[in-house]
Amino acid sequence: MTVFTNLIKKRLCSAFYLFLSGALFIAATTATAEVVDKIVVIINDNVITLSEVNASAVLAAERLPDEAKADVKKMAEIKATILENVIEQKLVKQASDKAGIDVSEKEIDNAIEEVKKQNSFSHEALLLALAHSGLTYREFREQQKEQIRQVKFINKEFRSKIAVPDDEVLDYYKQNTGEFNTAASYRARMIFLSSKDKNLQKLRLKAITDGLKDKLEFEDLARDYSDGALAAEGGDLGYIKTGELDKTFEELVFKLSAGGVTEPIDKPEGIYIIQLVDLKRGSPRPFDEVKNIIRDKIFNKIMEERFTFWLKEAKKAAHIVVRM
Description:
The chain has 324 residues and is of the alpha+beta class.
């Protein structure tokens, strides 16, 4: 699936204009070209020029790390993907033209205001960003107009013809209940031994491991030896939701039973020892709370399948000649 397919999917959401905030930096190309250059693709009655593909590749490359930009193979892959992306855009544009889809100036204004809002841009900041990307404001408005037309076409051709029945939503919920669990939470205690003084760290670690073997209370050991900010509270972190603690720590904690203690975890800043005090596993969210999420999930899957099929058939039916 190409970049364009993914972007169209995003724009099919209820708030499709959110996509436009990213389009400023990853949109395909300028709307007009003053200089005649090499034609690299012919699609029915339209052409794609080398400058269009190169301009899009440059914009895409700006988002890559320097090492990726220096990778000739990687850049060739990006250019091939972008070429496919632009072909798909042209096919949707042609279909939108044929369907007679219109866009009002107000719709374009709203789209641009959304771009500015999502990027915290003033009008002047937007103009500077456009200049940096090689676009004039007029070209940018034309670009937004074309994107809106394409979305309106797809909504008309696909969105309006899809309905997700209630029983299908309920069936999905029953078969995938675990997907909608509330986040698990757990209470833990932590001992931290700073690496600033390695000798002191080694002595304290031995005292703690010996204390644990002798069945001393973890919280007492935390009070006596931990360098952590919560040492006075016995290292008590309180209840933590899944994902709030370092992933390495969390994976080890979830392997414990209540009262269990991890092996010392060595990090550059120091050593951590964690005790699991209590674990509250996630429970299924009520159906009424998630039914709209499920409906959107099913809807978007159907939309993606139909749009992908449409693109495939459109490519078959089109006269496409690639000259690269």
